From TrEMBL:
Residues making up the signal peptide according to the UniProt record: 1-24
Protein name as catalogued: Quinoprotein glucose dehydrogenase (PQQ, quinone)
EC number assigned by the record: 1.1.5.2
Superkingdom: Bacteria
Transmembrane residue ranges: none
SUPFAM superfamilies reported for this sequence: Soluble quinoprotein glucose dehydrogenase (SSF50952), YWTD domain (SSF63825)
Gene3D superfamilies: TolB, C-terminal domain (2.120.10.30)
Alphabetically ordered keywords of this record: Oxidoreductase, Signal
Native species: Paenibacillus nuruki
UniProt keyword Oxidoreductase, yes or no: yes
This protein's record includes keyword Glycoprotein: no
Domain Glucose/Sorbosone dehydrogenase: 66-369
Length: 383
């Protein structure tokens, strides 16, 4: 597997988008972006060749100086990226603009909490609607909410709320949003370091949630009158579907931190899971390769050295790309062989990954918890 470790191969030249970018070395050439995006899902029929096999080394730089970027979305020749401290970066016709986001409840930015998940409405080109996951405060306590926003001019304005009262805190916020092949909106929600929430079906923390685009509970959800689609998760930040409709999710394993009430967690044991409706993935009752009745063990478990998986995306050949924070790399996970392989290294922390028009895009996350270089954080396109 290709391993891009040589900084001499890191080429900051022609963009593969219509995104010319002014840099200290000149203006990046403007090329044409495709018309079909696959960020969290893939409905493309699997092919015999692997997308990652075509990579020749290095990457191009599509955007720089992003401030704690979190989620990538595409529309035509335009890229949108959320920033955890607020604002959505629009990259269009070579111009990088931070657009304001106006919500009816002020954005709470504390630790890992802020503006995180983001997905465009399937009809965005005509209705300019999107969905965001953001932290807020009520009576001194942190929460998260999912709301529909509309791009009006250069401002994203809240139109309606879908869900409020999702547990919040300083860490383990979850927050990934994606539309599934069934047309439903899915969201990850962390347990905010309150591990008991993961097994509590009355709480939305430590779960994968499923809802309609208006925030209603689907009649076919596995738990009656509940948004909960799967539970027993710790801090899932990535969800994606393969072409056969299977849902996969990344999940952060224990972090070696003190356990509320006494004791200390193990470290590592990050997971990749095959998500089935109504299933219990065990946290905190089981972790790693442990088993228990009526609990599902992961497809893949990392070692005791954490990789901290965040966003994931499927390729047309149905492998899964995994952005890792502590792992400081983009990895490829084969759900059949259950092997994890490095694809891109030496760019620092990687928060999100997307597949768009046959190209692989990642955003780095060195401005939060890393060691940022001069132009961090960046949107990169693998070559």
């Amino acid at each position: 597997m290709l391993n891009m470790k040589s900084k001499g191969k890191m080429i900051t030249v022609a963009l593969l988008l219509a995104l010319p970018l002014s840099t200290a070395t000149g203006t990046i050439q403007s090329l044409t972006l495709g018309q079909t995006a696959v960020a969290a899902t893939s409905s493309t029929t699997a092919t015999t060749s692997k997308l990652t096999d075509s990579l020749k080394g290095g990457y191009t730089v599509a955007a720089t100086k992003l401030d704690v970027p979190w989620s990538i979305q595409f529309s035509g020749n335009t890229v949108y990226i959320t920033q955890r401290g607020g604002g959505i970066v629009q990259i269009k016709n070579g111009k990088q603009t931070v657009q304001k986001v106006q919500t009816k409840k002020p954005l709470r930015v504390v630790g890992e909490a802020g503006l995180t998940g983001f997905v465009l409405d399937p009809k965005f080109t005509t209705n300019k609607m999107a969905y965001i996951y953001h932290a807020y405060e009520k009576n001194g306590e942190g929460f998260n909410r999912i709301v529909k926003v509309k791009l009006v001019g250069n401002v994203w304005k809240e139109q309606s709320k879908l869900v409020e009262g999702i547990p919040g805190g300083r860490i383990h916020e979850g927050g990934r949003l994606a539309f599934g092949p069934d047309g439903m909106l899915y969201s990850t929600a962390g347990e905010t370091n309150r591990r008991e929430l993961s097994q509590d079906l009355k709480s939305l923390g430590g779960k994968i949630l499923r809802m309609t685009s208006t925030g209603k509970i689907p009649k076919d959800n596995p738990i009656k009158n509940s948004y909960v689609y799967a539970y027993g998760l710790r801090n899932s930040q990535g969800i994606a579907w393969t072409s056969d409709g299977k849902l996969y999710a990344s999940d952060h394993g224990p972090s070696g931190a003190p356990i509320p009430g006494g004791g200390t967690d193990r470290t590592g044991l990050d997971e990749m899971n095959l998500i089935k409706p109504g299933s219990n993935y065990g946290w905190p009752k089981i972790m790693g390769n442990e088993t228990a009745p009526n609990m599902v063990s992961p497809l893949y478990v990392a070692s005791s050295k954490a990789i901290a998986p965040s966003g994931i995306a499927t390729t047309p050949d149905d492998t899964i790309l995994v952005a890792t924070l502590a792992g400081k790399s983009l990895k490829e996970f084969d759900p059949v062989s259950k092997k994890m392989t490095d694809i891109l290294t030496d760019v620092g922390r990687v928060r999100d990954v997307a597949v768009y028009n046959g190209k692989i895009y990642v955003i780095t996350n060195n401005t939060a918890g890393g060691t940022p270089e001069k132009n961090d954080d960046r949107l990169l396109i693998l070559k």
